[in-house]
Amino acid sequence: MNTSNPSAQPLPVRRRAARAGLALAAAALVAGCANVPNPAPNDPWESYNRSMYAFNDTVDRAFLKPIATGYETVTPRPVRTCIHNVFSNLGDVWSAVNSFIQGRGHDFANTLGRVLFNSTMGLGGCIDVASMNGARKIPNDFGVTLGVWGFDSGPYLVLPFLGSSTVRDGVGTGVALVAPSSPTAAILTLDDIPVRNALVGLYIVDTRANLLEADRLVEQVALDRYSFIRDAYLQRRNVMVQSRRSGGEAAGEQGPGYADPTLPDYADPDDE
Q1: Is residue 38 part of a domain?
Q2: Could you give the CA distance from residue 51 to residue 89 in angstroms, rounded to a whole number?
Q3: 81/210 Cα distance (integer angstroms)
Q4: Which of 7, 11, 50, 75 has the maximal Cβ count within 10 Å?
Q5: Is 80 within 8 Å of 72 (Cβ atoms)?
Q6: Following DSSP, what letter does each residue of 152-175 receive, concatenated?
Q7: Which range marks the domain in which residue 222 is found?
């Protein structure tokens, strides 16, 4: 079969390619449409951010969400839990490093203990035996570390494909992509390209699948999804940074989430 001839490709492949092209074209069109004359004080780049959010949302609905939903449907829960726990265990290594450089020795020791416990007794991290025994997860990353060191968060920023961030957290994300102890860098150092690509894909699908429940909740309660997600993100990140700066208890702290009753209601910006 002559694979260089598009008409020779199987019909389902051509249909998927056509849908992909239409989705990306629609996303590119939508990305140039947002115009916010009076942006929120913590979101001076709101016009750009809403455009990028629309782009990300279009790509997500066309590709990532259907794949994640299918993964959730066909993969048994114990298998999904095992996969998520393994990636989470890798993430704990990065959390431990950041707790250490923040000077939070107690959190560093607890998180390192979690990694060792789950890596051995938990069969490589497949089973989160640490949480079962009361050792709660301590989320941490380099964006929080920069906040502890005194760097301001800067304006809210929606990153292509990655979503909510700030200038400070964007720098933290960039560091995490190359830091040897981060989960993404650990995967990208693999020499076996097929295995590496498969793990990267599985990591992305696992991450998206674990956001499906939050996504459903946002669909139910948010009149303006963009504002809801932005404010929930900024509140949670502020709680994380302030708790570390104050030397308070960080173990298990998650900050406000999408279901937090203290979050304000949002009117549709078109009605304002």
Answers
A1: no
A2: 34
A3: 10
A4: 50
A5: yes
A6: ---SEEEETTTEEEEHHHHHHHHH
A7: 74-271
